Amino acid sequence: MRTHTNVLMPSPxxxxxxxxxxxxxxxxxxxxxxxxxxxxxxxxxxxILRSLDRADGPVPLSELAEEQVFERTSLYRALEPLRRQxxxxxxxxxxxxxxxxxxxxxxxxxxxxxxHWEAAQDAFLAEFGSGAWGTLAERLIGVVDVAxxxxxxxxxxx
Length: 158
What we know:
This protein is mostly helical. It has helices at 17-36, 43-54, 61-68, 72-84, 104-128, 130-157, and strands spanning 59-60, 88-92, 98-102. A hairpin with a 5-residue loop joins β2 (88-92) and β3 (98-102). A three-stranded antiparallel sheet has the order 1-3-2.
């Protein structure tokens, strides 16, 4: 991993977590988006399709939203192009719930996209380092959990 030496880092309190993570997300998404564009997908779309591909049958929209950390309206906006391309189907589930499932065409698109995702992943790991990424990925999962907990606490007190 390349690091900047002799750089005095500001205190953690002065480094905006939201801004820093957003910049990192945009930067890494460009790498993956460039590779996945070859099969007509964005990183977000691939992530959704891959999640559905790993599922054992239809997934409730609420469960997919939770896993992908989407608000419901944002999830619908992300799913609509996939539905139009017939990569997914959305249908009624139990009660008022809706479920989403990958179509055969969607499964083929995931299979076609996987080598492009792997190329992006390999390029990133070659520069950043597998060990460093493993450590950071574990910490980022913790960041997501903390942010969800803080948001839930805030919502409960509002």
